[in-house]
Amino acid sequence: MASMTDSRALMDQAERQCRQRGVRFTPIRQRVLQMIADTRGGLKAYDLLDRLTTEHAAARPPTVYRALEFLIDQGLVHRIESLNAYVACPCPEHAHGFQLLICRDCGRVEELHLDTINEQLGRRAHELGFTVQRQTIELLGRCDSCHQQAQTS
């Protein structure tokens, strides 16, 4: 879970980015991002919907999915394909690809930006005549904290 300071900084960055791009950062989009940012690891769409309906009784699945689509398009949220969940991007100003480290025990997600990996994959795809539309690199394992905890158990 992001700390209050981290979460507020993320929300401020998101507001600035949307304003600069001339896109609407509606209250529902803000709330969905806030819920994701305040959750350690990934949050599934229906968990978001359950939380959102406690605040907005009229919230329906399309509301959540449209907000998620917007947040992904703006680079504010990433979809964790293997978990069918969503995680806030800690550095939405980073325009390049990313990789996700996912702890299978505690759900912690860390974002990496190893641009050389993305460049190599892009070059090889191009050589093979393949156009990449979306790239997701996820590494599933165990974070150091969970690894140490497992060793002492």
Automatic annotation (TrEMBL):
GO cellular component: cytosol
Any one biological process term the GO annotation gives: regulation of secondary metabolite biosynthetic process
Keywords: Cytoplasm, DNA-binding, Iron, Metal-binding, Repressor, Transcription, Transcription regulation, Zinc
Keyword Transcription: yes
Domain of life per record: Bacteria
Binding locations of Zn(2+): C103, C106, C143, C146
Subcellular location: Cytoplasm
One Gene Ontology molecular-function label: transcription cis-regulatory region binding
Cofactor note: Binds 1 zinc ion per subunit.
Subunit structure: Homodimer.
Protein name as annotated: Ferric uptake regulation protein
Gene expressing this chain: zur
